[in-house]
Amino acid sequence: SQTNYAQFATGGDIIVNDGTYWYHAFINSGTFTPTKALTADVLVVAGGGSGGARVGGGGGAGADARPLAD
User: Fold this and answer.
1) Residue 14's closest CA among 6, 5, 4, 25?
2) CA atoms 65, 33, 12, 50: torsion sign
3) Which of 4, 8, 25, 31 is in Cβ range 3.0-4.6 Å of 14 for a Cys bridge?
């Protein structure tokens, strides 16, 4: 039988599966909520930028992407 792995976590504006991994991307503020114990090979956390009105906009907050140790 086929397992629907999408039910293992909720959250994100875009949820994609490439056949091996699930990707949850947030365009707006939100919460990633696992519905059971999960493992991850890589966790990426990045901040958004700010817009400006008639003057220069703010820069992005940067990102942190690293493999998770076994």
Assistant:
1) 25
2) negative
3) 25
Compute the distance between CA of residue 49 and CA of residue 39 in angstroms, rounded to an integer: 29
Judge whether 62 and 49 are in contact, CB under 8 Å: no
Question: What one-letter code names the amino acid at 68?
Answer: L
Structural contact between residues 47 and 63, judged by C-beta atoms closer than 8 angstroms: yes
pLDDT tens by residue, 12-69: 899 888 888 888 888 888 898 999 898 888 887 777 665 666 666 556 666 666 666 6
* Tokens coding 11: 């959250």
Distance CA 45, CA 53 (A): 27
Q: CA-CA distances (angstroms) from residue 29 to 9, 10, 38, 41, 56?
A: 16, 14, 22, 23, 23
